[in-house]
């Protein structure tokens, strides 16, 4: 939980979890303490800016989870040009799609029914779900994939469970 009692992933470049502005110093300090790191008050790149910076070769790599920007976003040719200019494109998805075909690395993810977790909808409401079936083949849950990546980059602090992430 965060200061206002709601929790989401915090993947919007100008907001912290709970949809609090990254420029809010008290909120930033709260998350710095919780995450044991320092956070810049400057927002990161939004989706459109990422592809512009990739085309300018200022963005070297992208890790895209569960999204097919070549299908879901407008200006397909601009998106494709930006993706082609990356040094590294990693896709984690349940489908072999147009964007995955361009990837340097494809990580087979699990569908929502194959893992436990939550989604935060556009209204900010958190929708939790539980695993019903196991992922097929070599597919893994987002948590399992991210824990493996954490291990590979030499960090010993694995999350191991949804409950550890939520606290």
Protein architecture, described:
With 167 residues, this protein is of the alpha/beta class. It contains seven helices and seven strands; from the N terminus they run ββααβααβαβββαα. The strands form three sheets. A three-stranded parallel beta sheet has the order 3-4-5. Strands 1-2 form a two-stranded antiparallel sheet. Strands 6-7 form a two-stranded antiparallel ribbon. Helix 2 packs across helix 4 (76-84). The protein is globular and about 40 Å long. The termini are close together. The model is unreliable at 1-7 (pLDDT under 50).
Briefly say what this structure is.
The protein is α/β, with parallel strands linked by helices and 167 residues long. It has helices spanning 25-35, 47-55, 69-72, 76-84, 98-102, 142-152, 162-166; strands at 15-16, 20-21, 61-65, 88-93, 105-108, 117-120, 126-129.
């Amino acid at each position: 939980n965060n200061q206002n009692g709601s929790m989401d992933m915090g993947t919007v470049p100008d907001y912290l979890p709970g949809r609090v502005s990254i420029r809010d110093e008290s909120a930033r300090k709260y998350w710095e303490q919780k995450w044991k790191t320092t956070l810049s008050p400057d927002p990161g790149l939004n989706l459109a800016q990422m592809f512009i910076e990739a085309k300018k070769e200022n963005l070297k790599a992208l890790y895209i989870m569960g999204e097919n920007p070549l299908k879901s976003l407008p200006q397909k040719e601009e998106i494709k040009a930006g993706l082609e200019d990356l040094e590294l494109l990693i896709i984690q998805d349940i489908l072999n799609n147009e964007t995955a075909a361009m990837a340097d690395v494809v990580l087979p993810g699990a569908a929502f029914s194959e893992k436990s977790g939550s989604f935060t909808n556009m209204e900010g409401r958190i929708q939790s779900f539980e695993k019903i079936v196991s992922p097929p083949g070599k597919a893994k849950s987002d948590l399992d994939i991210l824990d493996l990546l954490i291990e590979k980059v030499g960090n010993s602090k694995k999350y191991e469970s949804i409950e550890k992430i939520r606290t």
